[in-house]
Design a protein that fits this description.
The protein is mainly beta. The protein has no helices and eight strands. The chain has one domain: Thrombin, subunit H (Beta Barrel), CATH 2.40.10.270.
């Protein structure tokens, strides 16, 4: 169980916003929704092969106080690092904690 004192990382929750690019298409930009305290814990490391190139991916569990507006289309950022949200779950079904399983996006 997460304790309040374990929420020691400041993360920014971001949502994708489509904006016109002036040429008939659209670009996706990320807009900050909120900055919250969270517990960021690494789970495992993997190096899957994607498009015939090796790409390192780190999986993390990010736990924060419960909020109902976080979905899998969003991402979180922390100190220049980007975490794509794979799932967001109310872990005890009491609306106290939100557990997000994330994949760190690397260059």
């Amino acid at each position: 169980m997460t304790r309040i004192g374990q929420l020691r990382h400041r993360v920014t929750i971001e949502t994708p916003v489509r904006s016109a690019d002036g040429g008939g298409g659209a670009d996706t930009v990320w807009q900050a929704v909120d900055v919250v305290w969270a517990n960021v814990a690494p789970l495992s490391g993997a190096e899957p092969v994607e498009a015939e190139k090796l790409e390192a991916r780190l999986t993390h569990r990010i736990t924060l106080r419960w909020r109902g507006d976080v979905t899998a289309i969003m991402r979180m950022t922390m100190a220049g690092r980007i975490f794509a949200i794979e799932s967001a779950t109310d872990i005890d079904e009491r609306r106290r904690w939100l557990e997000c399983l994330c994949v760190e996006i690397t260059a």
